[in-house]
């Protein structure tokens, strides 16, 4: 029996371009791609076969025309559908699978976020949140992200691997890993903002495709969403002609339960001054007269009373080892993996400069004993 069985899924390409929002550019821009995903590959094996299928939440119209075979073994639950794919999965097939799973078949990507995430603790990736909108009516200094992202904002699909020997008997204990061919590339450093979510048997994880080591990003802080160079702040209000304090807006999640004005610094009381143009949502400055959020920062090194929560990420390399496989075939020769692909809006690479980038991805899997 061969030790290695490969399933190479080649060049999934996402083209993205900026859409105007109110005639201005914003960080956490909206993007849309120009090409379908293509997961194309062949299965390499002598004694064993590694088949691939997809689980969807909606039926695929005329699957036979796409070369898909509906499962007849009872794998599909209530309100679900399972299709076995040919060795080569075309862009048309993948678009149909993505659409049938509730996502946009043209693979639109919009910057979103998982919010705080701790690998090994979170049992699921949870809810995706939409990017915040800059509001002209800014009265609240504390704005957690609460708007659920749409399934149209990211790509998701469920893959089922089935290992069979030459007599069609199930092969248990095969470990599915990322193979060496797994890679991501893009113009304008767009892959630095890309994330791949994985849900397997009893675990979830988030992959940062270009990260050399596991790490975290902050999912709370101040932002300059309108690009005027000043971190967003509450509107100036008056009582009996006297101005009330103006506060930087705290977006996202923090370790502390924020209280105004306890977690803000004292401002000077002067009028807020217009500053330079900023296309980096994280590079604004505290406006003159604004009470700045007393947030802990690494650069410059400052310990404040407010600490953002974080979202952990792992590396592709972590799942190239049989010690930590993506999944292991069970007694029926099956293992199922859910994948999601999105742009992480809190990543500092997710800024206006990548709005015309083209993203490319190659998923390659290998099964080892």
Q: Indicate the percent of residues in helices.
A: under 10%
Structural class based on helices, strands and sheet pairing: mainly beta
Placed side by side, the strands forming the largest sheet appear as 6-7-5-11-25-14-15
Distance between the termini: 10 Å
Specify the biggest β-sheet. Answer: 7 strands, antiparallel
Specify the overall morphology. elongated
| Helical segment count | 1
Count of discrete structural domains: 2
Element order: H for helix, E for strand: EEEEEEEHEEEEEEEEEEEEEEEEEEE
Count of DSSP strands: 26
Task: Summarize the topology.
Blueprint: E1 4-15, E2 17-18, E3 31-32, E4 43-44, E5 48-56, E6 69-70, E7 81-84, H1 91-100, E8 112-113, E9 129-130, E10 142-143, E11 155-165, E12 175-178, E13 183-186, E14 194-200, E15 203-207, E16 215-218, E17 220-221, E18 238-239, E19 242-243, E20 246-247, E21 250-252, E22 290-291, E23 310-313, E24 327-328, E25 334-343, E26 358-368
Parallel strand pairs: 10-21, 20-22
Antiparallel strand pairs: 1-4, 1-26, 2-3, 5-7, 5-11, 6-7, 8-9, 11-25, 12-24, 12-26, 13-26, 14-15, 14-25, 16-23, 17-21, 18-19
């Amino acid at each position: 029996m061969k030790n290695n069985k490969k399933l190479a899924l080649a060049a999934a390409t996402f083209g993205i371009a900026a859409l105007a929002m109110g005639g201005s550019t914003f960080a956490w821009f909206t993007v849309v791609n120009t090409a379908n995903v293509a997961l194309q590959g062949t299965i390499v094996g002598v004694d064993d076969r590694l088949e691939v299928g997809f689980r969807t939440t909606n039926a695929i119209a005329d699957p036979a025309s796409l070369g898909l075979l509906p499962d007849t073994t009872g794998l599909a639950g209530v309100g679900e559908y399972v299709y076995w794919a040919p060795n080569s999965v075309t862009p048309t097939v993948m678009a149909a699978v993505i659409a049938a799973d509730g996502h946009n078949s043209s693979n639109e990507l919009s910057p979103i976020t998982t919010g705080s995430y701790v690998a090994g603790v979170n049992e699921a990736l949870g809810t995706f949140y939409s990017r915040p909108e800059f509001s002209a009516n800014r009265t609240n200094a504390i704005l957690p992200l609460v708007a659920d992202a749409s399934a149209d904002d990211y790509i998701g699909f469920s893959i089922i691997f089935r290992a069979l020997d030459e007599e069609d008997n199930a092969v248990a204990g095969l470990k599915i890993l990322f193979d060496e061919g797994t890679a991501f590339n893009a113009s304008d450093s767009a892959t630095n903002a890309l994330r791949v979510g994985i849900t397997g048997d009893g675990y979830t994880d988030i992959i940062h495709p270009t990260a050399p080591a596991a790490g975290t990003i902050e999912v709370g802080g101040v932002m300059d969403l309108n690009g005027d160079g000043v971190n967003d702040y509450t509107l100036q209000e008056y009582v009996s002609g006297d101005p009330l304090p103006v506060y930087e807006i705290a977006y996202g999640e923090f370790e502390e339960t924020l209280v105004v004005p306890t977690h803000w610094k004292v401002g000077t009381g002067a009028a807020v001054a217009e500053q330079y143009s900023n296309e980096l949502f994280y590079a604004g400055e505290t406006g003159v007269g604004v009470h700045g959020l007393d947030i802990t920062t690494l650069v410059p090194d400052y310990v404040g009373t407010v600490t953002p929560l974080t979202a952990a990420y792992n590396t592709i390399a972590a799942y190239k080892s049989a010690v930590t496989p993506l999944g292991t075939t069970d007694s029926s020769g099956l293992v199922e993996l859910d994948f999601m692909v999105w742009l992480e809006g809190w990543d500092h690479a997710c800024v206006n400069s990548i709005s015309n980038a083209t993203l490319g991805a190659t998923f390659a899997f290998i099964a080892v004993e």
